Amino acid sequence: MASVRFKNVNKWFGKSKVLHNINLEIKESEFVVLVGPSGCGKSTTLRLLAGLDDITEGDIYINDKIVNSLEPQHRNIAMVFQNYALYPHKNVQENIVFGLKRAKASKELIKNRLDKASIMLQLQDLLDRKPAQLSGGQRQRVAMGRAIVRDADVFLYDEPLSNLDAKLRSQMRYEIRRIHREYQTTSLYVTHDQVEAMTLGDRVVVMKDGFIEQEDSPMALYLKPKNIFVANFIGAPSMNILDATLYPGYIELENQRMPFDKHRVKKAIPSNGEQVKFGIRPDFFQDEQHISGSESLTTLKNVQVDIVEPLGYDREFNLKLGDQMLKARLDLRTEAQEGETINLCFDMNRAHVFDIESEKNLTLGI
Ligand SMILES: Nc1ncnc2c1ncn2[C@@H]1O[C@H](COP(=O)(O)OP(=O)(O)OP(=O)(O)O)[C@@H](O)[C@H]1O
Ligand SMILES: [Mg+2]
Predict the structure, then answer these.
(1) Is residue 297 part of a domain?
(2) Measured between alpha carbons, how far is 159 from 196 in angstroms, rounded to an integer?
(3) CA–CA separation, 43 and 22 (whole Å)
(4) Does the Cβ of 11 fall within 6 Å of ligand 1?
(5) C-alpha–C-alpha distance, residues 152 and 247, integer Å
(6) What CATH number is attached to the domain comprising 297?
(7) Closest residue (by CA) to atom 8 of ligand 1?
(8) Is the pTM of this model over 0.85?
(9) In angstroms, rounded to a whole number, what is the distance separating the alpha carbons of residues 92 and 360?
(10) Are residues 93 and 191 located together in one domain of the fold?
């Protein structure tokens, strides 16, 4: 087991800088997820830790030891890739134990580890098959098996589930959690899928253009995003980000005034108002007709229903408020049809106000 630390790490490819001053700690046994859009530097970050690319500036530590110039094979890291990288001519068993054999492990140890991993990953009946004779999910399990038998200090995963269909992804997410609970190996997991990030990570690091935007627990990212980028990226559907004007004591949205405690924002609000972005998650709206209890809620009136997308128990309502589009996730009880209007209630304490220039969250406590 190991801890990992990136200290002021910068990476250039020729003239382009792809990682900007990355500072990141992964504690022993922690499962950290790196998430961000394509090209933001996730794989590069993993490859630097694995030793597959050179660091331009800064240091990477494994257990307080700088590993910048240590060869990949001496870092005791196991990596699971998106394309599995299995040996096509070796069968499942040979693929799984290849690394152990190369490291000249004893026959007994190889057998023990193989047995344990194949039970864990339900590969017992597939050990003689070649990769070409396996489904995508089975290949993925072999790739995982190869990593877990190695008893590595750190597991790195680079979008390991992106080739799988939705059902298998969800199953494999569960397997990965189970493996982590069993082996407790320090892990860094890369994905651009925010659902994977939320469900797998003890901690999630959101990246954009080579910068770390925020690192936090999944729920903290969801409830307290530091800026509009994180608010948009985490949570599905994304947070509604609407043009609004903030005054001392209220906020105005498409000519509707709603009370807003001026002490909830970090800066002084001018009496003639300030343009802001108002953020509220689609999940936090309730249909006024189905409010339960006597919560003190704010109401957004006369919101026009544009398109309704059924998801099962919930439905995603695409709505119009003046010229602005927004979404609400409401349950089956809401019967409003396309073209009708509804009143939406929400708890203003769950809403955010963002600066229009810096896009930073101005809400206090974030
Ligand atoms: N070997 C390379 N030479 C030059 N540029 C590279 C190299 N590898 C990656 N890059 C660039 O570095 C940036 C970060 O790439 P990286 O592969 O880390 O992104 P990513 O976040 O993993 O994206 P994706 O989600 O698409 O896999 C990109 O702009 C990419 O084009
Ligand atoms: Mg990548």
Answers:
(1) yes
(2) 10
(3) 13
(4) no
(5) 56
(6) 2.40.50.140
(7) 44
(8) yes
(9) 50
(10) yes
Q: Report how far residue 290's alpha carbon sits from residue 106's, in angstroms, rounded to the nearest whole number.
A: 66
Q: Which ligand is nearest to the CA of 37?
A: 1
Tell me, what CATH number does 197's domain have?
A: 3.40.50.300
Q: Does residue 159 come out as left (phi exceeding 0), alpha (psi in the -120 to 50 range) or beta?
A: left
**Ligand 1 and 235: CB distance under 6 A:** no
Q: Strand order in 186-191's β-sheet?
A: 77-80, 154-158, 186-191, 31-35, 203-208, 211-216
pLDDT band at 294 (very low <50, low <70, confident <90, very high): low
Average pLDDT over every residue of 249-267:
94
Q: What phi and psi values does residue 255 have, to the nearest 5 degrees?
A: 65, 10
In order of 87, 221, 269, 338, 347, the CA distances from 80 in angstroms are 14, 26, 50, 46, 43
210 Cα: distance to centroid of ligand 1 (angstroms) = 10
Same domain, 200 and 257: no
Residue identifier of the C-alpha nearest atom 20 of ligand 1? 39
- Verify that 266 and 345 share a domain, yes or no: yes
Ligand 1 center to residue 67 CA distance, Å?
22
Mean pLDDT within 185-205: 94
212 near 41, Cβ under 8 Å? no
The closest residue, in CA terms, to atom 24 on ligand 1 is: 38
The Cα 234–Cα 225 span in angstroms is: 8
Look up the domain containing 338 and give its range. Answer: 240-355
Q: How many domains does the chain have?
A: 2
Q: Considering only CA atoms, which residue is closest to atom 28 of ligand 1?
A: 39
Q: Residues 143-167: pLDDT tens digits?
A: 989 988 988 999 999 998 887 888 8
Ligand found nearest the CA of 40:
1
**227 pLDDT band (50/70/90 cuts)?**
very high
Ligand 1 contact via 246 beta carbon (within 6 Å): no
Query: Torsions phi, psi of 88, nearest 5?
Result: -70, -30
pLDDT of 151 reads: 83
pLDDT in tens, 72-92: 989 999 988 877 789 999 999
